[in-house]
Amino acid sequence: MVELREQDESTMGLSFAGDVYNSAVYMKRCFPQLSVSMVTAIGRDRLSDKMLNRFKSESLETEFVFRHPSKVPGIYFIETDESGERRFTYWRNDSAARKLVDFLSAEVIEQLTVADTFFFSGIPLAIFEQGAHTKFWQSLERLKAAGVKVVFDPNYRAQLWTSKEEAIRQFDKALRLSDIALPGVEDLTVLYGIQSAQDAVGFCQQYELEEVVVKNGPHSVFTLVGNELLSHTITPVTKVVDTTSAGDAFNGVYLGARLSGRGIGESVQLAAKAAGTVIQHPGAIAPMAAFKQTMSEAGI
Ligand code: AMP
């Protein structure tokens, strides 16, 4: 999406963000040897050109970034009130991304089968148009059958869904098809009434997941891999500026670390370091130099 941020009465800062994009950016910044492709739909307008250029400047592959002939990207505007509370206003009901499934032809899906991993979240599931989900699930089944690992973060945004029941239905399907789940406790609390990281792990156990990673803010991270349940300690950040995309940064760096052969404990610590760094900067995408400096000190 296009991100607009008020700088002063008459000036807006322009940026680009979106949960899967944020994860892709942080994965690539930490693990440049990995090939990271965006799969999305944008328009043919000038802002879409800028968005595409930004993907490229973050060294993301753009072969699967489709250009819709008439739609344009979604936009959101962030304001911060006097008490520092953030407010978001969205214009996304008619975005190009809602049409992504139209571009997922059998040929495109075949091309995607060469990937090791396909990562998606609850947000695309919320914005796909009525009727698009069936084709999306069929595409995912094809990828899975070809050996692509499917990874899902059940990111829940209530205002994007027609009902909670519909979100639960689609998330159930997603978790059934996934190999790895990366839920945040808060999302599961709102949807299923789950209150703790342990209960979140228990919830995930009903699915055939080979790896479960539960993010619990500054408190802890729980992992369940095979039968091994581990609790990982997180060092809380005292000066939090903006928590936008903490979970996304965590996802991208965790998956990048795992794909690069790192163990569970080390991958969690690198991911937590990345998330802890991102929340000390405003906006979804932290400045490249500051982010890379901190991560290189952490051993990347
Ligand atoms: P959340 O989506 O709130 O669970 O946060 C995602 C990840 O960001 C967590 O798993 C932590 O690694 C990190 N994180 C969130 N809040 C903090 C904080 N206050 N201090 C340090 N790390 C944090």
Taking all residues together, what is the mean pLDDT? Answer: 96
pLDDT under 50 segments (min length 5)?
A: none
What's the overall geometry?
Answer: globular
CATH superfamily: Ribokinase
Helix percentage range: 40-55%
Keywords: Kinase, Transferase
GO molecular function: kinase activity
Protein name: Sugar kinase
Organism: Bowmanella denitrificans
Write up what this structure looks like.
The chain has 300 residues and is an alpha/beta fold. The chain has a single domain (18-33, 102-297), classed as 3-Layer(aba) Sandwich (UDP-N-acetylmuramoyl-L-alanine:D-glutamate ligase), CATH 3.40.1190. 40% of the residues lie in helices and 23% in strands. It contains eleven helices and twelve strands. Strands 7-8-9-10-11-12 form a six-stranded mixed β-sheet, with helices on both faces. Strands 2-1-5-6 form a four-stranded mixed β-sheet. β1 (2-8) and β2 (11-16) form a beta hairpin. α1 packs across α9 (246-259), α5 runs parallel beside α6 and α9 (246-259) packs antiparallel against α10 (264-278). The model has no long low-confidence stretch (mean pLDDT 96). Bound molecules: adenosine monophosphate. Adenosine monophosphate (AMP) binds at residues 184, 215-218, 221, 234, 236-237, 240, 243, 246-247, 250, 272, 275-276, 279. The site of adenosine monophosphate has 18 residues, from β10, α9 and α10. Residues 9-288 form the Carbohydrate kinase PfkB domain. This is Sugar kinase. Pfam families: PfkB. Keywords: Kinase, Transferase. InterPro entries: PfkB_Carbo_kinase, PfkB_dom, Ribokinase-like.
